[in-house]
Amino acid sequence: MIAVDKPSERTENSLLSLVIPVYQEGGHIKSTIKVIEKVLLVNNITYEFVLIDDGSTDNTWSELKNLAKENDRISLLRLSRNFGKESALCAGLEYAAGDMVLVMDADLQHPPELIPDMVKAWLEEGYDLVEGVKHSRGKENFIYRACARFFYYLIYKSSDINLGRASDFKLMDRKVVEAWKELPERALFFRGMSAWLGFERKEIEFDVAERVNGKTKWSLLRLIRLAANAITSYTSVPLHCITLIGIIMFFGALLMGAQTLFMKLSGRASDGFTTVILLQLIIGSAIMTSLGIIGIYLTKIYKEVKSRPRYLISKYIRGGDDKC
What we know:
Shape: elongated
Strand order of the largest sheet: 7-5-6-4-1-2-3-8-9
CATH architecture of the largest domain: Alpha-Beta Complex
Strand content: 15-25%
Mean pLDDT: 76
Helix content: 40-55%
Largest sheet: 9 strands, mixed
Number of domains: 2
Oligomer: single chain
CATH topology of the largest domain: Spore Coat Polysaccharide Biosynthesis Protein SpsA, Chain A
Order of helices and strands: EHEHEHEHEHEHHEHHHEE
Number of strands: 9
CATH class of the largest domain: Alpha Beta
């Protein structure tokens, strides 16, 4: 049983921690932070930044260090290699000290101008989790959009978690963060895990803006891996599908057996070469697909049993002071 801490005292001076994973964003990370910080200062929000360099190979880390030298409200984490966005988010949540924690992207596709509304919903309306939901998905090609809808449809039908318009743009109360940190799994899917937690939540719509610079780091292969990880993390329906396939094929075999015996006894049996080949192909495909699904779940069990850390930190800097 997970005990939820007492709720944070909600005042005008409550600290907001902004957790932002950064990967290959050296060309614009300074301007991004300045845009976000301007919104915070104008609205008199007490804040800190927790910026996580997820193993970037460009000038991202040097740009982040320059930011930290100029601003004592900035903490930096550098992971020892590229562990992925989910692990970077995990690191940021574990180092954030705020009464409320806001997770957002480093490319300004999550609009900073919504931050005051999210803070207001937490402060004045008492919500524990305020999440930005997509009113529109921005400029996406048709194939990607269709695949995303199909993926979220599968998640919803198999696990009853509706992520159709969800995003990683979320503000969480300290008790929500502490509850999230208690989740032990190594295969992380932040969007689904935060939805699973529950708590009093409010949705605020936003339109996905264009990236300020560069292009998305999510390749088709990485998206497929994320989808497979998400589906197998929140439902065992694929395993039950294997059982369903087996039942269907069993009754199919009974029908084919009855038909074969009838043809044999009536003297109308043929060599049936085509039928045999088709049956072998169907059965072989079903077996290989079933083994693949089982293999995905076994891989997840294997990773969990090894209990390796979700991430490794090679450098920690706060306000220009190197602590490593």
